[in-house]
């Protein structure tokens, strides 16, 4: 049968002086006891201590101390390192490195075992990196989608108005398009929106991007859709309807608010709790480029644009033509064809064109 008794020579600090004393320590099943080592001389009248004397605070054997194991505060056991044992009277015993008593007293937690073993530490690091990557690519989006219904739609309006004001101050300039052209586009889309997006508030605006016409479109959380002059001048009315349908998809699915919940996280939650969510959110949307939606959001909006095309009996290739012109306009403005400009709501145009072409080929006219 394996013995439950361990002995060792250790160093003891009494908690009052900085000077350490060498002691001989014995650990049994229920107690830890120690005394100075080498032992102090005993008088001829000294007798072996009784069990009661050993348990007393001042035992009769000179210098002997005894404590219940349950009262000890044992530090983490590390290989090649001494183990601290805190005593209930404020003292500390430092057991020597690699002492079996230290391992018997404290052992090693799972975390310490991982740290002490480089293969386990490496595996844990790889697992942590994988978890972070998954959360960044999917987990955060899933969490944001689940939390979105808890955000009142009134906040979409408040945030959209705040963002719109900031953008107007920064670089949105009045459109140079003829008023009749603006009214014709707006009236046509209003009629389409009543049929395709009956429960969604949408308001089409026209603007220039600073001193340039701008070749872009964007949707704000409050339902405002901004068409820039360069985009309107280059596209047909049918293509503009498809682009507006795409932007309306962002509003319908609340992509901006989803991005906000995903990106702002605790900051947005704190804003809701403190009653200043719209200001916090507007600042986040306007400065962090969160109107650059992810691929899943773009697919949802593409589906809405294609639904509008089929519902209104527009040519199936309408969206393909719109993306090709958007690509050419981006090149003319000096933007790379593989990326989108600041605040653009479109992913790489080449992928967008191929996706729209496949959807057009597989589409069946709506009745």
**What radius of gyration results from the CA coordinates?**
37 Å
Total helix count? 14
Total domain units: 2
Unreliable sequence segments: 42-46, 48-60, 266-278, 284-291, 337-345
Average predicted local confidence, pLDDT? 76
> What's the arrangement of strands in the largest beta sheet?
4-3-2-1-7-6-5
Give the CA-CA distance, first to last residue: 86 Å
Task: Provide the succession of SSEs.
Answer: EEEHEEEEHHHHEHEEEHHHHHHHH
- Strand tally: 11
Strand content: 5-15%
Largest sheet: 7 strands, antiparallel
Provide the helix percentage. 40-55%
Shape: rod-shaped
What class, by secondary structure content? alpha+beta
Note down, in words, how this protein is organized:
It is a single chain. This protein has about 375 residues and is α+β, with helices and mostly antiparallel strands. It folds into 2 domains: about 5-110, Roll (PH-domain like); about 150-360, no CATH class. It is built from 14 helices and 11 strands. The protein has a 7-stranded antiparallel sheet with strand order 4-3-2-1-7-6-5. α3 (about 110-115) crosses α4 (about 120-145), α6 (about 180-195) crosses α8 and α10 (about 265-275) runs antiparallel to α11. The longest helix is centred in the middle third of the chain and has 30 residues, at about 120-145. Mean pLDDT is about 75; it is low at about 40-45, about 50-60, about 265-280, about 285-290 and about 335-345.
